[in-house]
Amino acid sequence: MNKIANKQIICDVLMEHAKDDKDVVVLCSDSRGSSSMTPFADNFPAQFVETGIAEQNLVSIAAGMAACGKKPYVASPACFLSTRSMEQGKVDVAYSHTNVKLIGVSGGVSYGALGMTHHSAQDIATMGSIPGMRVYLPSDRHQTRKLTEALLADTDPAYIRTGRNPVEDVYEEGNVPFEMDKATVVCDGTDITIIACGEMVLAAKQAAQLLAAEGISARVLDMYCIKPLDEAAIVKAAQETKAIITIEEHGPIGGLAGLVAQVVMTSHPVKMAMMTLPDAPCVAGKSQEIFDHYGLNAAGIVAKAKELV
């Protein structure tokens, strides 16, 4: 079982680059521990900024540093970063087109028992609605490394959501298919397509294996790139399979489901099912307990697939 969280991989990659590039800086809102950025702060104190619990200032300071030529990476809990500082993300980062990467850590329901105040089941909707803001939800540590490397190479604003705890690998080390802003085909199939993002990709992969044992061929798309959305992959799936299921650790409004449905509706309508968290405060508990409660797991996907095919 993997013991390295996606957020730790981001820190590792940033540290590797910060050795030679003094413009790489990290900013935290009293969150260096929860965002796994303590090693960066300890090793590169001159390239680290601590704002305290002030998420709005955090993002604006990062935008100012970017305007001066720095490459700021903001790490803060997703539940606060995507709501308290949405205006700063909209104006200072996206509208001003500053090279700021916003890293929302402990996203979705990964704060578990802390409940509604700390869950971020609306961040795809909030950050994705901002013109000029890209949105990414990597599925495992290997894809997270690829994505972080790619983001270091560009100068456009982005929001990246990661969970709190380590997750099982979707991909094998040394064999990680990755193309920037293109969905990854985890496995191919002809009967049904499962489109997932973030931690739900593993459940989708597991469901495809269970469905194969029952004679149902499932294609799994890892749609880590929520915005820009890989519309071509969605259209291809609609044309080549009989139905589409979307699954995400997000509420039903403004997330992956709605984005995929818009593409399907206007290009090649097929039967669809959308698996999301409810449009209500989620129950409290460990991530997997919450997923199981709402059927956001391999068994739930299998049951939904059987209804469609």
Could you give the order of strands across the largest sheet?
2-1-3-4-6-5-10
CATH topology of the largest domain: Rossmann fold
The succession of helices and strands, N to C, reads: HEHEHEHHEHEHEEEHEEHEHEHH
- For the record, the CATH class of the largest domain is Alpha Beta
In the residues, how many domains can be counted? 2
> Helical stretch count?
12
Structural class: alpha/beta
Can you walk me through this structure?
- With 309 residues, the protein is α/β, with parallel strands linked by helices.
- The protein folds into two domains: 6-161, Rossmann fold; 184-308, 3-Layer(aba) Sandwich (Rossmann fold).
- It has twelve helices and twelve strands.
- The protein has helices at 6-18, 38-43, 55-67, 78-81, 86-95, 123-128, 141-152, 200-213, 231-240, 256-267, 287-293, 298-308; strands at residues 24-28, 48-50, 71-77, 101-105, 134-136, 158-161, 184-187, 192-196, 218-222, 225-227, 243-247, 271-275.
- The longest helix has 14 residues, at 200-213.
- It starts with 5 loop residues before the first helix and ends with a helix.
Give a quick precis of the structure.
This protein has 309 residues and is an alpha/beta fold. 38% of the residues lie in helices and 17% in strands.
Layout of strands and helices, then pairs:
Blueprint: H1 6-18, E1 24-28, H2 38-43, E2 48-50, H3 55-67, E3 71-77, H4 78-81, H5 86-95, E4 101-105, H6 123-128, E5 134-136, H7 141-152, E6 158-161, E7 184-187, E8 192-196, H8 200-213, E9 218-222, E10 225-227, H9 231-240, E11 243-247, H10 256-267, E12 271-275, H11 287-293, H12 298-308
Parallel strand pairs: 1-2, 1-3, 3-4, 4-6, 5-6, 8-9, 8-11, 11-12
Antiparallel strand pairs: 5-10, 7-9
